[in-house]
UniProtKB/TrEMBL annotation, chains A, B, C:
Organism from which the protein derives: Nyctibius grandis
Lineage, broadest ranks: Eukaryota, Metazoa, Chordata, Craniata, Vertebrata
Residue intervals passing through the bilayer: 18-42, 85-102, 136-154
Membrane topology recorded in Swiss-Prot or TrEMBL: Multi-pass membrane protein
EC number per UniProt: 2.5.1.18
Protein name: Microsomal glutathione S-transferase 1
InterPro entries: MAPEG-like_dom_sf, Membr-assoc_MAPEG, MGST1-like
Keyword terms: Acetylation, Endoplasmic reticulum, Membrane, Mitochondrion, Mitochondrion outer membrane, Transferase, Transmembrane, Transmembrane helix
């Protein structure tokens, strides 16, 4: 019974723009989730932790306490992760509303592809790191695409 | 073909509450995105950066290294930005589900307007800054509205 | 008129998987919002604030300035809050797309319940704190469930 309903809903949302949104949103969210693993990798290899309970395996007292510290590489990944949150959250919301606002498929795909590509480039630019303005430009590309989608949403749906 | 489908989906979601949600969500997300530009403005004017590659244009070695520092104004904008994330993410999710839970249009508009107004006031209160409890009250208004919408969602849809 | 439309839309999304998603998403977002209150509680009881205007009630000048400081308990809650953002934002997006991708109700419920349970356990493990690997395992459970849902979304909808 639930299977039927689900099928019906799926047919209903049998909309190529919506599924393009689904694909690119899933990709950028998975990319963002990867930052957690990279942070964990650097915390373990650099032995730089934020919580006393995380250093318990290194012994007790002073011997473990020295691993409660910040590390430049860990902080770099964390800044990249926060930048992802700041930029992917707007895409999540505005992109969904944009996909439902009836854009042309080719136009929508162009927006989604530029956004996803820009965020992937941004991560490489941040983590390698590449010299500026690599990171700045990749950030700006994703930002501008989101603004353009927001404009389309407001033009279509403005209801104050 | 895609155009037709998109039109069909748009008609389907020809729901005033949904489009009110779309409008106010886009507004608060754009407001949140503005925090990135304000952070960049303060980083550049206060010369306070987080990444060595961002200071490369100020020369090499020690002359550039002194710009790798925190600045009170930059940190203030960043706290405002994080507070936006912490409060707008719940609105994004709970607001969407609330819009789909069949509220009265006038009630829904009241919730969305208070939330958007509260977050805009919160930003002014944080950045000027205004004396407390300005920031506290504007934060609380958005928080309470989100809780009220969550209650309506759970009352309508509770499915554990 | 709006009421009718809303009813129609509600019937349309008369999908058990979708409402299960709505319920669990609302629960985890409310849980995340609770972190703001816990942060405020520790800031007030530990007298550890981030903004000068927050300490104005303690007097002027040096007597208030000493409360502008970080506190281990406050920072711990803030790390838990940020970890929520990093993990609940992917669930918000991927979970919605997963719910619309036509999964079996029982399978979907299993995913949503494990995710919500894992995030609640994670909060207890972080705030008490429990010895590791409690926090690590609860984090990993939510992470893996989100990856599995993303895989189902991409398998159903891949549209590059």
């Amino acid at each position: 019974r639930s299977g039927e309903m689900a099928t019906k809903l799926t047919q209903l949302i049998d909309n190529e723009v919506f599924w393009a949104y689904a694909t690119y949103t899933t990709i950028v969210l998975l990319k963002m989730m990867l930052m957690s693993l990279i942070t964990a990798y650097f915390r373990i290899t650099r032995k730089a932790f934020a919580n006393p309970e995380d250093t318990a395996s290194f012994g007790k007292g002073e011997s473990a306490k020295k691993y409660l510290r910040t590390d430049a590489d860990v902080e770099r990944v964390r800044r990249g992760h926060l930048n992802d949150l700041e930029n992917i959250v707007p895409f999540l919301g505005i992109g969904l509303l944009y996909a439902l606002s009836g854009p042309e498929l080719s136009t929508a795909l162009l927006h989604f592809r530029i956004f996803a590509g820009a965020r992937i480039l941004h991560t490489f630019a941040y983590l390698i790191p590449l010299p500026q303005p690599s990171r700045g430009l990749s950030w700006a590309a994703g930002y501008v695409v989101t603004i353009l989608m927001a404009y389309k949403v407001l033009k279509t749906t403005l209801y104050l």
